[in-house]
Protein backbone atom coordinates (compact mmCIF):
# COMPACT_ATOMS: atom_id res chain seq x y z
CA UNK A 1 0.00 0.00 0.00
CA UNK A 2 2.76 2.44 0.96
CA UNK A 3 4.82 1.48 -2.09
CA UNK A 4 1.87 2.25 -4.33
CA UNK A 5 1.50 5.68 -2.79
CA UNK A 6 5.20 6.31 -3.18
CA UNK A 7 5.14 5.36 -6.86
CA UNK A 8 2.10 7.56 -7.41
CA UNK A 9 3.85 10.50 -5.76
CA UNK A 10 6.96 9.85 -7.83
CA UNK A 11 4.93 9.75 -11.04
CA UNK A 12 3.33 13.07 -10.12
CA UNK A 13 6.74 14.64 -9.53
CA UNK A 14 8.00 13.31 -12.87
CA UNK A 15 4.93 14.71 -14.62
CA UNK A 16 5.52 18.09 -13.00
CA UNK A 17 9.16 18.11 -14.06
CA UNK A 18 8.13 17.23 -17.61
CA UNK A 19 5.47 19.96 -17.67
CA UNK A 20 7.89 22.57 -16.36
CA UNK A 21 10.45 21.63 -18.99
CA UNK A 22 7.84 22.00 -21.73
CA UNK A 23 6.75 25.39 -20.39
CA UNK A 24 10.35 26.59 -20.47
CA UNK A 25 10.76 25.24 -23.97
CA UNK A 26 7.62 27.05 -25.13
CA UNK A 27 8.83 30.29 -23.55
CA UNK A 28 12.07 30.07 -25.49
CA UNK A 29 10.18 29.30 -28.69
CA UNK A 30 7.89 32.31 -28.30
CA UNK A 31 10.73 34.71 -27.60
CA UNK A 32 10.44 38.16 -26.02
CA UNK A 33 6.93 39.53 -25.49
CA UNK A 34 5.66 42.56 -23.61
CA UNK A 35 2.59 44.43 -22.47
CA UNK A 36 -0.68 42.57 -22.24
CA UNK A 37 0.76 39.57 -24.09
CA UNK A 38 3.30 39.14 -21.32
CA UNK A 39 0.57 39.43 -18.70
CA UNK A 40 -1.53 36.87 -20.56
CA UNK A 41 1.27 34.32 -20.97
CA UNK A 42 1.57 33.06 -17.42
CA UNK A 43 3.06 29.63 -16.80
CA UNK A 44 -0.45 28.30 -16.17
CA UNK A 45 -1.55 29.75 -19.50
CA UNK A 46 1.33 28.11 -21.36
CA UNK A 47 0.45 24.79 -19.73
CA UNK A 48 -3.09 25.02 -21.05
CA UNK A 49 -1.88 25.59 -24.60
CA UNK A 50 0.60 22.74 -24.27
CA UNK A 51 -2.07 20.42 -22.90
CA UNK A 52 -4.45 21.38 -25.70
CA UNK A 53 -1.82 20.33 -28.24
CA UNK A 54 -0.68 17.20 -26.40
CA UNK A 55 2.51 18.91 -25.19
CA UNK A 56 3.80 19.46 -28.71
CA UNK A 57 5.75 22.71 -28.41
CA UNK A 58 5.62 23.66 -32.10
CA UNK A 59 1.83 23.20 -32.29
CA UNK A 60 1.35 24.97 -28.96
CA UNK A 61 3.47 27.90 -30.16
CA UNK A 62 1.38 28.23 -33.31
CA UNK A 63 -1.84 28.11 -31.31
CA UNK A 64 -0.63 30.66 -28.77
CA UNK A 65 0.68 33.05 -31.42
CA UNK A 66 -2.68 32.88 -33.19
CA UNK A 67 -4.40 33.77 -29.92
CA UNK A 68 -2.03 36.67 -29.21
CA UNK A 69 -2.66 38.03 -32.70
CA UNK A 70 -6.41 37.64 -32.20
CA UNK A 71 -6.31 39.34 -28.80
CA UNK A 72 -4.27 42.25 -30.16
CA UNK A 73 -6.89 42.96 -32.84
CA UNK A 74 -10.18 41.79 -31.28
CA UNK A 75 -9.22 43.16 -27.83
CA UNK A 76 -11.61 40.95 -25.81
CA UNK A 77 -10.39 42.46 -22.53
CA UNK A 78 -11.71 45.85 -23.63
CA UNK A 79 -15.29 44.77 -24.28
CA UNK A 80 -17.56 46.50 -21.77
CA UNK A 81 -21.06 45.74 -20.54
CA UNK A 82 -22.53 48.94 -21.97
CA UNK A 83 -21.54 47.62 -25.42
CA UNK A 84 -23.09 44.17 -25.11
CA UNK A 85 -25.59 44.26 -22.25
CA UNK A 86 -28.62 44.82 -24.47
CA UNK A 87 -28.00 41.36 -25.95
CA UNK A 88 -28.55 39.76 -22.57
CA UNK A 89 -31.75 41.44 -21.41
CA UNK A 90 -33.70 38.19 -21.71
CA UNK A 91 -31.13 36.11 -19.81
CA UNK A 92 -29.97 34.02 -22.74
CA UNK A 93 -26.43 33.82 -21.29
CA UNK A 94 -25.18 34.81 -17.86
CA UNK A 95 -22.78 33.86 -15.11
CA UNK A 96 -24.60 31.95 -12.39
CA UNK A 97 -24.43 33.07 -8.77
CA UNK A 98 -23.23 29.60 -7.71
CA UNK A 99 -20.31 27.28 -8.47
CA UNK A 100 -20.33 23.58 -9.25
CA UNK A 101 -19.09 21.11 -6.64
CA UNK A 102 -15.52 21.52 -7.91
CA UNK A 103 -15.69 25.27 -7.36
CA UNK A 104 -15.91 26.13 -11.05
CA UNK A 105 -17.63 29.14 -12.59
CA UNK A 106 -20.99 28.20 -14.13
CA UNK A 107 -22.36 29.85 -17.26
CA UNK A 108 -26.08 29.35 -17.94
CA UNK A 109 -27.15 29.37 -21.59
CA UNK A 110 -30.67 29.29 -23.04
CA UNK A 111 -30.22 28.77 -26.79
CA UNK A 112 -33.90 29.40 -27.59
CA UNK A 113 -33.64 33.01 -26.42
CA UNK A 114 -32.26 35.42 -28.98
CA UNK A 115 -32.20 39.19 -29.01
CA UNK A 116 -30.02 40.74 -31.70
CA UNK A 117 -29.67 39.52 -35.26
CA UNK A 118 -26.08 40.66 -35.64
CA UNK A 119 -23.75 37.65 -35.50
CA UNK A 120 -20.86 39.95 -34.68
CA UNK A 121 -22.70 41.32 -31.62
CA UNK A 122 -23.76 37.87 -30.48
CA UNK A 123 -20.21 36.53 -30.69
CA UNK A 124 -18.96 39.60 -28.84
CA UNK A 125 -21.49 38.91 -26.07
CA UNK A 126 -20.16 35.35 -25.67
CA UNK A 127 -16.53 36.52 -25.67
CA UNK A 128 -17.39 39.11 -23.01
CA UNK A 129 -18.67 36.33 -20.75
CA UNK A 130 -15.64 34.13 -21.39
CA UNK A 131 -13.40 37.00 -20.29
CA UNK A 132 -15.66 37.72 -17.33
CA UNK A 133 -15.60 34.08 -16.24
CA UNK A 134 -11.79 34.07 -16.31
CA UNK A 135 -11.75 37.27 -14.27
CA UNK A 136 -13.87 35.66 -11.55
CA UNK A 137 -12.21 32.26 -11.21
CA UNK A 138 -11.76 31.03 -7.66
CA UNK A 139 -8.20 30.47 -6.41
CA UNK A 140 -6.76 27.27 -7.85
CA UNK A 141 -9.44 26.99 -10.54
CA UNK A 142 -8.87 27.43 -14.26
CA UNK A 143 -12.04 26.07 -15.82
CA UNK A 144 -15.74 26.72 -16.14
CA UNK A 145 -18.90 24.66 -16.56
CA UNK A 146 -21.67 25.39 -19.05
CA UNK A 147 -25.34 24.62 -18.41
CA UNK A 148 -27.53 24.79 -21.52
CA UNK A 149 -31.32 24.58 -21.19
CA UNK A 150 -33.48 24.03 -24.27
CA UNK A 151 -37.02 25.07 -23.35
CA UNK A 152 -38.66 26.49 -26.47
CA UNK A 153 -35.78 25.56 -28.76
CA UNK A 154 -36.51 24.84 -32.42
CA UNK A 155 -34.69 24.92 -35.71
CA UNK A 156 -36.27 28.30 -36.46
CA UNK A 157 -34.85 30.04 -33.37
CA UNK A 158 -31.57 28.14 -33.19
CA UNK A 159 -28.18 29.82 -33.39
CA UNK A 160 -27.08 30.03 -37.04
CA UNK A 161 -24.61 27.28 -37.89
CA UNK A 162 -22.02 29.88 -38.92
CA UNK A 163 -22.24 31.56 -35.51
CA UNK A 164 -22.11 28.20 -33.69
CA UNK A 165 -18.94 27.42 -35.61
CA UNK A 166 -17.39 30.79 -34.68
CA UNK A 167 -18.22 30.32 -31.00
CA UNK A 168 -16.80 26.80 -30.93
CA UNK A 169 -13.68 27.90 -32.80
CA UNK A 170 -13.12 30.82 -30.43
CA UNK A 171 -13.60 28.69 -27.33
CA UNK A 172 -11.33 25.89 -28.52
CA UNK A 173 -8.56 27.93 -30.07
CA UNK A 174 -8.39 31.05 -27.91
CA UNK A 175 -9.57 29.68 -24.54
CA UNK A 176 -8.00 26.20 -24.51
CA UNK A 177 -8.61 24.00 -21.48
CA UNK A 178 -10.98 26.55 -20.02
CA UNK A 179 -14.08 24.41 -20.54
CA UNK A 180 -14.46 21.59 -18.02
CA UNK A 181 -17.82 20.25 -19.15
CA UNK A 182 -21.00 21.39 -20.90
CA UNK A 183 -24.40 19.94 -20.10
CA UNK A 184 -27.03 19.95 -22.84
CA UNK A 185 -30.13 19.68 -20.65
CA UNK A 186 -33.19 18.03 -22.15
CA UNK A 187 -32.71 19.02 -25.80
CA UNK A 188 -35.73 18.20 -28.03
CA UNK A 189 -35.53 15.42 -30.56
CA UNK A 190 -35.29 17.92 -33.41
CA UNK A 191 -31.99 19.13 -31.92
CA UNK A 192 -30.40 15.93 -33.25
CA UNK A 193 -30.47 17.36 -36.79
CA UNK A 194 -28.65 20.51 -35.64
CA UNK A 195 -26.17 18.50 -33.55
CA UNK A 196 -25.23 16.28 -36.50
CA UNK A 197 -23.90 19.40 -38.21
CA UNK A 198 -22.22 21.32 -35.39
CA UNK A 199 -20.55 18.39 -33.65
CA UNK A 200 -18.02 18.25 -36.48
CA UNK A 201 -16.73 21.68 -35.45
CA UNK A 202 -15.54 20.27 -32.13
CA UNK A 203 -12.12 18.74 -31.71
CA UNK A 204 -12.01 15.32 -30.03
CA UNK A 205 -11.06 16.65 -26.59
CA UNK A 206 -13.84 19.22 -26.48
CA UNK A 207 -16.46 16.84 -27.87
CA UNK A 208 -15.79 14.46 -24.99
CA UNK A 209 -16.79 17.25 -22.58
CA UNK A 210 -20.28 17.58 -24.06
CA UNK A 211 -22.88 15.66 -22.03
CA UNK A 212 -26.53 15.16 -22.98
CA UNK A 213 -28.71 14.96 -19.88
CA UNK A 214 -32.41 14.12 -19.57
CA UNK A 215 -34.53 14.60 -16.43
CA UNK A 216 -36.18 11.17 -16.71
CA UNK A 217 -32.91 9.33 -17.22
CA UNK A 218 -31.44 7.92 -13.99
CA UNK A 219 -27.83 8.19 -15.16
CA UNK A 220 -28.41 11.81 -16.22
CA UNK A 221 -29.88 12.68 -12.83
CA UNK A 222 -26.93 11.10 -11.04
CA UNK A 223 -24.48 12.93 -13.29
CA UNK A 224 -26.06 16.28 -12.44
CA UNK A 225 -26.01 15.44 -8.72
CA UNK A 226 -22.30 14.65 -8.96
CA UNK A 227 -21.61 18.16 -10.27
CA UNK A 228 -24.17 20.35 -8.51
CA UNK A 229 -25.87 20.82 -5.17
CA UNK A 230 -29.66 20.64 -5.49
CA UNK A 231 -30.07 23.81 -3.42
CA UNK A 232 -28.03 25.81 -5.93
CA UNK A 233 -29.23 24.26 -9.17
CA UNK A 234 -32.24 26.05 -10.76
CA UNK A 235 -35.47 24.07 -11.07
CA UNK A 236 -35.29 24.08 -14.85
CA UNK A 237 -32.13 21.96 -14.51
CA UNK A 238 -33.69 19.56 -12.00
CA UNK A 239 -32.60 21.41 -8.85
CA UNK A 240 -34.45 23.21 -6.07
CA UNK A 241 -33.39 26.81 -6.62
CA UNK A 242 -36.05 29.28 -7.73
CA UNK A 243 -33.45 31.84 -8.79
CA UNK A 244 -34.47 33.89 -11.81
CA UNK A 245 -32.34 36.10 -13.99
CA UNK A 246 -32.62 39.78 -13.07
CA UNK A 247 -31.09 41.99 -15.73
CA UNK A 248 -30.93 45.07 -13.52
CA UNK A 249 -28.99 43.30 -10.75
CA UNK A 250 -26.80 41.46 -13.23
CA UNK A 251 -25.93 44.72 -14.98
CA UNK A 252 -24.75 46.21 -11.70
CA UNK A 253 -22.49 43.23 -11.18
CA UNK A 254 -21.07 43.43 -14.69
CA UNK A 255 -20.28 47.15 -14.37
CA UNK A 256 -18.33 46.42 -11.21
CA UNK A 257 -16.53 43.61 -13.03
CA UNK A 258 -15.69 45.99 -15.86
CA UNK A 259 -13.84 48.15 -13.36
CA UNK A 260 -11.96 45.08 -12.09
CA UNK A 261 -11.12 44.11 -15.68
CA UNK A 262 -9.82 47.60 -16.51
CA UNK A 263 -7.68 47.58 -13.38
CA UNK A 264 -6.28 44.14 -14.14
CA UNK A 265 -5.34 44.84 -17.76
CA UNK A 266 -4.49 48.50 -17.33
CA UNK A 267 -7.10 49.16 -19.97
CA UNK A 268 -8.00 52.62 -21.18
CA UNK A 269 -11.30 51.40 -22.58
CA UNK A 270 -14.19 53.44 -21.25
CA UNK A 271 -16.27 51.98 -18.46
CA UNK A 272 -19.61 53.67 -19.02
CA UNK A 273 -22.17 54.27 -16.29
CA UNK A 274 -24.71 51.50 -15.91
CA UNK A 275 -28.23 52.70 -16.76
CA UNK A 276 -29.52 50.44 -13.97
CA UNK A 277 -26.88 51.53 -11.44
CA UNK A 278 -28.25 53.67 -8.62
CA UNK A 279 -25.02 54.27 -6.77
CA UNK A 280 -24.94 51.09 -4.69
CA UNK A 281 -21.64 49.29 -4.45
CA UNK A 282 -23.06 45.77 -4.38
CA UNK A 283 -26.15 43.91 -5.45
Describe the structure.
The protein is an alpha/beta fold. The protein has 2 domains: 2-74, Helicase, Ruva Protein, domain 3; 87-265, CRAL-TRIO lipid binding domain (Phosphatidylinositol Transfer Protein Sec14p, 3-Layer(aba) Sandwich). The protein contains 11 helices and 5 strands, in the order H-H-H-H-H-E-E-H-E-H-E-H-H-E-H-H. Helix 6 links the parallel strand 2 and strand 3 (144-149). Helix 1 crosses helix 3 (43-52) and helix 1 (2-30) crosses helix 4 (57-74). It is globular. The N and C termini lie far apart (51 Å). The model is unreliable at 1-6 and 274-283 (pLDDT under 50). This is CRAL-TRIO domain-containing protein. It holds the Pfam family CRAL_TRIO_N.
For the structure shown, list the relevant keywords.
283 residues; alpha/beta; Helicase, Ruva Protein, domain 3; Phosphatidylinositol Transfer Protein Sec14p; 5-stranded mixed β-sheet; 11 helices; globular; disordered N terminus; disordered C terminus; CRAL-TRIO_dom_sf
Tell me the layout of helices and strands.
Elements: H1 2-30, H2 35-40, H3 43-52, H4 57-74, H5 81-84, E1 93-99, E2 105-109, H6 119-135, E3 144-149, H7 161-174, E4 179-185, H8 191-198, H9 204-207, E5 210-213, H10 218-227, H11 247-265
Helix pairs in contact: 1-3, 1-4, 3-4, 6-7
Strand order of the largest sheet: 1-2-3-4-5
- Backbone CA Rg: 20 Å
Topology pattern, helix = H, strand = E: HHHHHEEHEHEHHEHH
Choose one word for the global shape.
globular
Share of β-strand residues: 5-15%
CATH class of the largest domain: Alpha Beta
CATH topology of the largest domain: Phosphatidylinositol Transfer Protein Sec14p
Secondary structure class reads alpha/beta
The main β sheet shows up as:
5 strands, mixed
The figure for the number of domains is: 2
Stretches where pLDDT is under 50 for at least 5 consecutive residues are 1-6, 274-283
CATH architecture of the largest domain: 3-Layer(aba) Sandwich
Fourth-level CATH superfamily of the largest domain: CRAL-TRIO lipid binding domain
Helix content: 40-55%
Protein name: CRAL-TRIO domain-containing protein
Organism: Stylosanthes scabra
InterPro entries: CRAL-TRIO_dom, CRAL-TRIO_dom_sf, CRAL/TRIO_N_dom, CRAL/TRIO_N_dom_sf, PI_Transfer_CRAL-TRIO
Domain CRAL-TRIO: 99-245
Amino acid sequence: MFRHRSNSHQDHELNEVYAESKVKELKRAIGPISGRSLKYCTDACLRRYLKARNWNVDKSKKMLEDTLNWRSTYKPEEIRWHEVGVDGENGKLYRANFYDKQGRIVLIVRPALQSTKSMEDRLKFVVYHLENAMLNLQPGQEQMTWLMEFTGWSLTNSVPVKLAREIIFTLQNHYPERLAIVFLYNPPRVFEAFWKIVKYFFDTKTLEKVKFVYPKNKDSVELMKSYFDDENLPKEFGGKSTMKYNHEEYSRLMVQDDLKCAAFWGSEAEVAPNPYFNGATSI
